[in-house]
Each structure stands twice: as C-alpha cells, then as structure tokens.
Design brief:
24% strand, binds magnesium ion, binds guanosine-5'-triphosphate, four-stranded mixed beta sheet, 39% helix
Length: 305
C-alpha cells in the first residue's frame, strides 16, 4: 500500500484538529484531507488536500446549519472525486453537533464510498448538557451511519474527562483517536508477522450490526492490564459482547513471544460470539520496548432493543 491509499479526513473544527494530530503520527503512511467552512482549521497543513466549504461572506463556518454544509459539500463532488480516486480506506474524524461537521461528514462519506473506498468514521457526540447540539448530532449520526461502513461513536464527555485527568484542555482529548488511527494505519501499511490486508478489513466491516474499535496498551506480561486500558475508551455506550467479527492487531517490541501474543489475543476475543470471524495480525516494532499495543475493530454487534 502507498500513502495515497489511506486518507485521514477531518470535517469541521474538531474533526480537522483531530485529523492534524493523527496525521502527524503517521506522516508518510497516509494522506490527509481537511474539510471545513472555517479557514483557521487549515493552518499548519501545507501538505493536506483542502476542501473549503466557507464563503467569503461568512468566513466563520456554517453556524449550526448542517443543510448548508451538506449542500456545499455536494458542490465539491468533482474535486472530492479527484482526491478520492486512489483512496482505498478513509478514516473520517468528526465532532457532531455543529453545522459544518454534521452536514458535510455524511456527504463526504457517501462520496468516498461511491468511489469504492472503505469508510471508517469516528464521530464524537456533544456534551450531555448541549441539548440543541445533541439533537442536531443525532440526525447527523443517523445519516453518517447509513453512509460509512463503520461508525465509531465517541462521547465528548468522556474524552474531556480523560483529557482533564491528564491535565490537558478538553479539545486535546484526542490522544485516544491518535492511538487508534496510528494503530490502524500501521496495521495496514507495514508487513506484519501475520499479514492483514484490506480484504480482511472489508470482511469485518461488511458485517451487519454496529461496530466499534478499542485500543489497549500495556506490559507484555500483563494482558489483563492491556484489556483494562482498552476498556477505558471514551466510547458512547456499546456492549461489545456477542460481536460477530473482530479484526485484532497486536504490536509488540522485539522480545514479544508467541505465547504473549496468544494470551493477549485470547483476552480480547473471549467475549465475542462463539462463531465470530476473528482475523489476527501481529507485528514487531523496534520502538515498542517492553510494551504491547492492541488495536481491535469489532463488528456485527446487535444493538440492544
Ligand atoms: N462546550 C463546548 N463544546 C464545543 C466547543 N466547540 C465545539 N464543541 C463541541 O464539539 C462539537 C463539534 O464542534 P465543531 O467541530 O467546532 O463544529 P463544526 O463542525 O466546525 O460546526 P460549525 O462551526 O457550526 O460550522 C459541538 O457540537 C460541541 O458539542 C466549545 O467551544 N465549547
Ligand atoms: Mg466550526
């Protein structure tokens, strides 16, 4: 795979800021596309594809008007088609509840999917107290879920809490997103011990039902700790038990043994449906000293009635 095959796309203010952070962690392995109505999102992003949804008359955004953003995004379909032409996988990042991200994300997902790409979206839902934003977000989420292959729902509340615990501003709660994007991109870009590829990813994302992703990091001799860190994910409620599909990538330092690999993989797959399709990949990375990182994509989860 080449860098142009994976596109990290940020839509709206939060989405763009997350995309820039995530892309910096996988520079050279993925391209980036920033989509916003607010030009200030494009600062420090010389190498990115930029889709400006702004208008000279209202440079500040689509001010809580998703239909306007959607319409402008549709107007960009020819340019988007050029950007999307070589792309096999889009990792789409968005914070729902505002105008631009909520209106443009699902339309960009639609265009990407039509162009033949797998679309994995990560969408943050507004803070609980923001009722108007929450109802705008709900509508946008529904449409995003229809267009993306996988939509991982994050809670801004939890992201913010984790950022606070780390002593950073809530907008910076993006570390989890960065770990996730970096993990996925590395999985797909580099040769592993056991090699995963896009066909594997496609098999998992095409299962019916809901999907989510987990990232766990910890010591090789402490698989419970790794699972525990994965369960700290800032996900909106979702029970992963009974998932039908699971793509799991285990990455460890030079000393990682097959025994450790199996133990960690087993921890993560125990809660799945007994007949789940599990695709395992593993990789040794010199920079991961005495550390194991696990990235999983779970799919085919039946939502509770
Ligand atoms: N409390 C708080 N929440 C924010 C703030 N900025 C963004 N958010 C949250 O993040 C979500 C997405 O925000 P943005 O990415 O800035 O929105 P956008 O897509 O750029 O939309 P517009 O700017 O309205 O066109 C919002 O719905 C809010 O829940 C802020 O300054 N304070
Ligand atoms: Mg904005």
């Amino acid at each position: 795979m080449e860098a142009s095959h994976i596109l990290i796309a940020g839509v709206g203010g939060l989405g763009c800021s997350w995309a820039k952070g995530a892309h910096a962690r996988c520079d050279g392995f993925a391209d980036m596309c920033l989509i916003d109505a607010d030009d200030s999102s494009f600062e420090h992003s010389e190498s990115a594809h930029l889709l400006r949804l702004g208008h000279t008359l209202d440079p500040m955004g689509c001010a809580a008007l998703p239909p306007l953003a959607e319409q402008r995004m549709r107007g960009y379909s020819a340019l988007a088609r050029t950007v999307l032409e070589p792309v096999e996988l889009v990792l789409l990042l968005v914070g729902l509840g505002g105008g631009t991200g909520t209106g443009a994300a699902h339309e960009f997902a639609r265009q990407a999917r039509q162009s033949g790409a797998i679309v994995v979206a990560v969408a943050a839902l507004p803070f609980d107290v923001q009722e108007t934003r929450a109802s705008i977000a709900e509508e946008g989420l529904h449409r995003l879920e229809k267009n993306a292959h996988v939509t991982v729902r994050l809670s801004l509340e939890r992201l913010a809490r984790q950022a606070r615990e780390r002593g950073t501003a809530w907008q910076m709660g993006a570390e989890w997103i960065e770990d996730l994007v970096e993990g996925l991109v590395r999985t797909l870009m580099r040769m592993g011990l056991i090699n995963l590829d896009l066909m594997d990813l496609r098999a998992i994302v095409e299962k019916k039902g809901e999907a989510t992703m987990l990232v766990g990091i910890g010591k090789p001799d402490d698989p419970e700790g790794i699972l525990e860190s994965a369960m700290m994910a800032p996900l909106a409620e979702l029970d992963v038990g009974g998932a039908q599909g699971c793509l799991i990538q285990v990455e460890g330092g030079i000393g990682m043994t097959i025994g450790q690999l199996e133990e960690v993989a087993n921890m993560f797959t125990e809660a799945l449906d007994p007949n789940a399709q599990v695709i395992l990949g593993a990789r040794v990375s010199e920079d991961l000293e005495d550390t194991i990182r696990v990235v999983t994509l779970l799919s085919g989860i039946q939502s509770k009635p």
